[in-house]
Amino acid sequence: MKKLLWIGLAGATGAIMRVLIGHAVPNVSGFPLSTLTINVIGTFLLCFIIAGAFRTLSAHKDVQDIVTTGFLGSFTTFSALSVETVLLVENNQFILAGLYVLCSIIGGIFAGSLGFQLGRKKVRI
Question: CB neighbours of 55 closer than 8 A, spacing ≥ 6?
Fold first, then answer.
């Protein structure tokens, strides 16, 4: 039960961060730049943390769940990507929708790869 409360608290924190970044990064000409930015940052952080901190510090499974499922799970969102893409298509903005999906996938893969590479480097604390 205690673990679930920590996951919930981390989830609330991730959701708040998502809203704050969403307000700080405006959408441009109908392009959902805020969600793209949040998802790419979240992907980088997840990969960086998995490859680095969790491996190096041998984080307890509960801590891993709190950070990954709680914080990052609520920070990033596939559903927003999906809804925004559908809305772009419904508004006949097919090129923008395709560009958004492409940027999300390529950006996520690039950010994830970079996160793993940087996370695997030995960092002395």
Answer: 119, 120
Q: Within 10 Å of residue 4's Cβ, how many Cβ atoms?
A: 11
Which residues, listed in sequence order, are joined to residue 31 by a DSSP beta bridge? 28
The count of other CB atoms within 10 Å of the CB of residue 50 is: 19
Among candidates 64, 63, 14, which has minimal Cα distance to 42?
Answer: 14
pLDDT the model gives residue 81: 94
What number of residues does the chain have?
125
| Each residue's pLDDT tens digit, 8-66 | 999 999 999 999 999 999 999 999 999 999 999 999 999 999 888 777 666 678 888 89
d(C-alpha 100, C-alpha 106), whole Å = 10
Q: Could you tell me how far CA 64 lies from the centroid of its own chain?
A: 15
Q: Is 28 helix (H, G, I), strand (E, B) or coil?
A: strand
85 in Cβ contact with 101 (< 8 Å): yes
- How is residue 91 annotated by DSSP? T
Return the pLDDT at 57. Answer: 64
